[in-house]
Amino acid sequence: MSRPRVVAIDGAAGAGKSTLARALARYLELPYVNTGEMYRALAAAALRDGVDPDDVAGLMRLVRALRFVVSSGPDRHLEVEGWPRPALHTPEVESTVSVVARHPEVRSHLRAAQRAMVGDGAVMEGRDIASVVVPEAPVKIFVTAEPEVRARRRAAERPSAAHDAVGDALRLRDARDAVTNPLEPAVGAEVLDTSELDVGAALAEALAIVRRLAPEMVR
Residue 11: which of 205, 111, 140, 142 has the closest Cα? Predict the structure, then answer.
């Protein structure tokens, strides 16, 4: 039986895992599944409907109504029906997503949805992908970067935000996320430090890992 064509990418916010995962998926001609968008959609729905982020019953009602699909075309990626990407990346969602994601019931429901999206293969990124969602993935990459680099990258994504405020928000999110999922590599994961790498160099490093661990995935 052939192994699934799955690359599991974990790492901290701002470490560059989304940019890397998207580029790697395009190169490998696999769907790109950003699991963080699922949690962001739930946070956005809770904000829209006035559901307290600690109201587990209310959150479960909302999450069961969300519909996740993989888009068609050459650049296949996860989409949340009814939620365009900009609506999932507001400051309000950013400050809420870690709170809604910490509930075991929510994570269990979304992990099942994530496993169902693997299909014949995917590049899937998030916080517990290699350790819990697809531990059987032949390629596991843990993306990290120095805190100052992460803050600088996030500030570049949000030109109107002050660098210090972005850094403080990242530290708060790290602390919240660490309660739910300790930020450490899964067993068998390759650590990729992107602190001094641009997108092209990070992609080259990731492809070298894929070629070494699962050469059959590189067509």
Answer: 142
Contact 11, 186 (CB under 8 A): no
Count of structural domains, the chain: 1
Note every long-range contact of 15-19, with CB atoms under 8 Å and residues 24 or more positions apart, other chains counting: 15/143, 15/144, 15/145, 15/150, 15/194, 16/143, 16/145, 16/153, 16/194, 16/197, 16/199, 16/202, 17/125, 17/143, 18/125, 19/199, 19/202
Tell me whether residue 218 is in a domain: no
Q: What would the pLDDT profile of 143-154 be if each residue is shown by its tens digit?
A: 999 988 888 877
Q: Please report which confidence band the pLDDT of residue 21 belongs to, taking 50, 70 and 90 as the band edges.
A: very high
For residue 26 the two structure tokens come to 């395009």
Nearest-Å Rg of the Cα atoms of the chain is: 17
Whether 185 is in a domain gets the answer yes
- Token pair listed for 13: 């916010």
pTM: 0.86
Q: Give the CA dihedral 67, 71, 77, 83, nearest 10 degrees.
A: -40
How far is Cα 21 from Cα 9, in angstroms, rounded to an integer? 7
Residue range(s) defining the domain that contains residue 160? 5-212
CATH number at residue 91: 3.40.50.300
Does residue 219 sit within a domain?
no
